[in-house]
Structure formats: structure tokens, C-alpha cells
Amino acid sequence: MSPGHLRRAVAPGRAAAADRLVRADRSRTFPPLPGPDGPDGSQTESWWGRAWLTALESSALDAARLGRGRAYARDGHVDTINITPGRVIATVRGSRPRPYSAEVRVRTLTEQEWDALLDGVAARPDRLTALLAKELPRALAEGEVSLLPGAGELTPRCSCPDSGRPCKHAAALCFQVARLLDADPFVLLLIRGRGERELLDELARRNAGHGAREDRGRAAALAAMAPGSGGASSESASGAEPGGPSATGRAPVPGPGVAGASGSGAAGRTASPGAVRPGTAVESGGRTASPAAASRGVLAREALADRPRPSLPPPAALPAEPGRPPALPDTGDLPFDAATLELLAADAVARAHAFLAAAGPTGGGDPAGPGPFATLPVWEDAVRLAATAHPTAGLTATTRALYREVAAATGRTPADIARSVAAWRQGGPEGLALLERTWNPPAGDFDRARSALLAAGLPALRPHHNHLTDAVRGLQLRFGRDHRWYPYESEPGAEDWWPTGPAAPDPVGALTTLLAR
């Protein structure tokens, strides 16, 4: 493969990777903010944060809604906030069980506006220094390109039925965004269209361009002032001094450290023998390096060389119980069912918690397999999800709806799903296997079970495969491959068996518990 063809083959992959980095840089997610210390829900400290709230207040139609929004922000009703160019969105909990989806839109800057803004930052290093220190200079924010939104530029939206502009949910979101702006003005730049990494890379390129132009100017000035150069002889012929105006009437660009004509006697001062001319560097051996060599920077292998780094902090302690994900807004325009996504998120958290608990506090354990229930077939995993969705709830309207959805997806009936869920809760994968299949246990515990039941004065059960059954009373014990006994019951004579109660290690205890119901 030719080098040119190889470059053409690799270039699309690099472009795709760069595009992914830009997309990731243009989206930031912030966890719910802690409640402020003061009585003001916004607790805005920076002038640009207050300017954001001024834009909100100037376009609000109802001051009372702003007050309720401030209280919502102070009381922690605003959940995770996601910010992308021109859009801020979050779920805000109101008086209903499901939160609302609140959103604020702001116009993004055009390419021409970004060029002017970045040129202004690159030309003034103090502005970049302020941004890196999480400060927003007024001259930058209120210059030719206005970064801060003005009156009417904040467009609030919400899924709640309130037609206020803004409603209290969108107002609460705006108050929390002001706090985010306080901590990091790059959030404002992201809202206007560019991510932090993207901006810093572009500013580095522009600064490099400015530096290269300045280096060329200094090199040309030094060459013009060098003894015997054409520039020096022409200046001498014209009667101009080295620091004074040239024959063209334009002042030459002085190098760093060169005194101007305003200094006393500076124009006619002559460098002493052996002195290094300003703007040059000295290499090893006393040779003088060119300005280009002096400004070539640091070699990549030196910048990327391995060096000692501080050790990572210890991992956080594992909580006693897995947490619950926040409730999602129940809006019709979502491309998925909110309850289903909440179920999957809660399940992922529970499995991660179990995996970390098996690994131990230092992570040095060896949990069996890639994780709890990681390789279950689709049917068993669907039953597991349905069984763990509401482990302590009875047959409520929510669980009935869940069973209907699982039944429709798996080609079974809701009664089959409810029976399978009961079996899973009784014994996990083994309990579900006993519900659906029989097996022939070897001689031993199963054969001795009938004698143990008779000796305890319990009813005699008829054996069949791994089942011991009294169809008249509607009682049954199923012997599992884990050597446990699983109680079942049915309406007498109906042969409609349902898992009932927990599994037990001996048949006497399992049947005694079943008879006590």
C-alpha cells in the first residue's frame, strides 16, 4: 500500500475521532447542586451570574413565579443539568410523582462572531489568563461580541401545564445555571456554542500564529540592525540612527530589550565587544543561536517523558444499599418509556453494587464471573427484571402493567409472568427452573424425604420425578438441584401450582411452613 493511500485510509478515522471529541466537549452534565447556605436560592456571587439573572428577571411576566422558582432551586428540586450549545435542560420535581422537563434555549454565536471573540482573547493574554482562573473579564463579555444574554434572549420551555413565561420549574433551572456560571464561565461559552477544550485548542493555535509573526518581525529587525547588513548601510546612508525613523518614515520594530529613542542617549549607544545582541540566544560552546532556534519550544519526547506522579486516592466506601436513579419526566416526546429506563438504570446500579461488594473494599477480590446474572438467557433475565423491579410490592396497577408488557414481549400470558416472578423470588434461577422443568434426582435425600415426613406426623405425599404431591389438599414440594425444597400450593383438585413461601433445606420445615399458611 502506498504512503498516500495509507494516509487517505487513516484520515477518515482521525476525522471521526476528532468529531467524537468535539461532540463530547460540547456536552456537559452536572449533578444536582447542593442547597445554598444563604436564604437566596441563587446565591449568585459573580457579576456575570447576576447578569444572567437580570436577563431572566427582565423578561419574566410574573414575579411570583420567579419567587417560587427561587424556592425550588433553594430546596433542591432541580435534578441533573445537561448543557449543550444553545440548550440547557434538567428535570425539576414539582408536586406530582413524576418530574417535569424544564429547558432554556439561548442563541449560539455565529462563526464570524466566534472569530472576532477569539481574536480578541488571543491578542490580550490577560483575558485568557482570567478565563483559566475562572473569571470572565467585562471587556470580553461586553465587547464587540456580547456573551451574556440580554432581555428576551432566554427562551424557557417546560412540560408542565403552566403557561407562565417562565414557569417556576424553568425559573428554578435558570437560578441553578447562574450558580454554575459562578463556578465556571466556560459554561457560558458552551451555551453560546463552543466547548472548553475546543476553545483552548483554538486559542493555542491563534497564539502560536501571533507568536510566529512576532518572531519573524523580531528576526527582521535584528537582521536590519546587524553590522554590514543592507538595512544598516541604508540607514547610515540616509542619516538615520539605528533607533530612529527609517528613510520610509516608518519606525523599525525593536527587539525585546532594545531601548527606544526616548531613552537618554539610547539611540547612539554602542554595544560593548562580546555582548550578545538582544533577541538572540547562546548555544553550548558560546555560539549564538538564531531567533528561530531559540523559540522552537520543547521536544515532544521531553514533554511526554515518564515522570513520577502522585498516587491515586483510595476508593470511596461502598454504601450499604444501592441508590435509586432519579425519576424521569413522563413526556410524550421521549423516544423511550420513562418507567422502563428507570427500571434498567436501577437494575444496573444494583448489579454494580453487588459486583463491587463481591470484589471487596480494596478491589482485590475475585468475584465469580463478569458480574451477577451477566449471562442469563433473555427469558430468565426478563423474569429477573420483573421480579426485582418492585421486590416488596404486591400485585399493584404498576406491576400488572409491567407483567402485561413482559408478556407481550415474550409471547406469554400475564399469569405466566406472575407465576415466573414468584418462582424467581422463591429461588432465583433454580426456582425458575423448577417451575418449568422436572428432573429425576438420584437416590438419597429425595428417597428419605417421605420417611421423614411420616415420622413427623405430616401428610404422606406421592412422589413423581422430583415432586412430592398431595393433590387433594393442594400441597406440593419440589426438590431442587441445590438440595433445597420448594413449597407449592394449588386449589384442591385444580393442579394449578404456584410457588408459595421460601425454599427450605429439609422437607419437614418446608411442608410445616406450607401447612401453617
Question: In short, what is this structure?
Answer:
The protein is α+β, with helices and mostly antiparallel strands and 517 residues long.
What does this structure look like?
The protein is of the alpha+beta class and 517 residues long. The chain is built from 18 helices and twelve strands. The strands form three sheets. Strands 1-2-3-4-5 form a five-stranded antiparallel beta sheet. A five-stranded antiparallel beta sheet has the order 8-9-10-11-12. The longest helix is centred in the middle third of the chain and has 30 residues, at 196-225. It starts with a helix and ends with a helix.
Keywords:
517 residues, alpha+beta, five-stranded antiparallel sheet, 9% strand, elongated
Strand order of the largest sheet: 1-2-3-4-5
Q: Sketch the major β-sheet.
A: 5 strands, antiparallel
Query: Residue share in helices?
Result: 40-55%
Distance between the termini: 78 Å
Along the chain, the helix and strand elements come as HEHHEEEHHHEHHHHEEHHHHHHHEEEEEH
Mean pLDDT: 78
CA gyration radius, whole angstroms:
38 Å
Q: Can you tell me the residue ranges where pLDDT is under 50 for at least 5 consecutive residues?
A: 5-10, 231-289
Strands, count: 12
Alpha-beta classification: alpha+beta
Write the layout of secondary structure elements.
Layout: H1 3-25, E1 28-30, H2 47-59, H3 63-74, E2 78-84, E3 87-92, E4 100-105, H4 111-123, H5 125-132, H6 138-141, E5 155-158, H7 168-183, H8 186-191, H9 196-225, H10 230-238, E6 281-282, E7 288-289, H11 291-294, H12 300-303, H13 338-359, H14 378-389, H15 397-410, H16 414-436, H17 445-455, E8 462-464, E9 467-470, E10 475-479, E11 485-489, E12 498-499, H18 507-515
Antiparallel strand pairs: 1-2, 2-3, 3-4, 4-5, 6-7, 8-9, 9-10, 10-11, 11-12
Helix pairs in contact: 2-7, 3-7, 4-5, 4-9, 14-15, 14-16, 15-16
